[in-house]
Amino acid sequence: MISTSDFKRGLRISVAGEPFSILDVQVQSPSARGAATLVKVKLRSLVTGQFRDHTFKGGDKVEEANVELRRVQYLYGDDETYHFMDAESFDQFELRTAELGGVAQYLKEGIGDLRSVLLDGRAVSIELPLTVSLRVTETPPALKGATAQAQTKPATLETGLVINVPAYIEPGETIVVDTRDGRFVSRAKG
Q1: Where is the domain boundary, 42, 64, 86?
Q2: Cβ(139)–Cβ(169) under 8 Å?
């Protein structure tokens, strides 16, 4: 059993018998005497990929989700299907876009360092690394003279994902993107 005080991003818990991954945790302290601390979490179902908000009282205990993680590599995608290979057994499997949720927008052919989430021996979703490197395919030119404050502009990445990047980023550059919130981190080294 896991206490709400141990909640953190990435932790997998079971709520009403369904496995979820915690995406965000917020703790609210009470303003009234005798009121319980509230722990609000944003969850993603490991089975359906659906998002859900849930509120626990401080000190509540929940079960850890009974899932297995295995290293996998993304091979390729076609229409609505994405193909992966288990890094240990070399078995190939596929997941549909609906099963992947927002993960699909970070996948490019050959990317490793992924983990499949297995529930009862069947892959139900993919866990991304904290950051991925993606190439910028399209972005407008920087505005001249607009340097009074940090300027950002939209950029389309090689996977079709659109994020805001600093004004100095040009098409063709490779950047590092945070997979938790789709935020620009830095230029990729090398």
Answers
A1: 64
A2: yes
How far apart are the C-alpha atoms of 104 and 99, rounded to whole Å?
9
pLDDT of 148 higher than 70: no
Name the DSSP letter for residue 148. Answer: S
DSSP β-bridge partners for residue 162: 156
**Structural domain boundaries, residue 113:** 68-127
User: Is residue 55 located within the same domain as residue 79?
Assistant: no
Mean pLDDT of the 29-42 span: 81
CB 3 within 8 A of CB 59: yes
Q: What is the pLDDT of residues 80-129, one digit of tens each?
A: 899 999 999 999 999 988 778 778 899 998 887 899 888 878 888 888 88
Give the chain's domain count: 3
CA torsion angle for 181, 187, 189, 190 (degrees, to 10)?
120
Which of 45, 64, 83 is the endpoint of a domain?
64
**What pTM was estimated for this model as a whole?**
0.73
Residue 185, C-beta contacts closer than 8 angstroms, at least 6 positions apart: 131, 175, 176, 177, 178
Rounded Cα gap, residues 113 and 135, in angstroms: 18
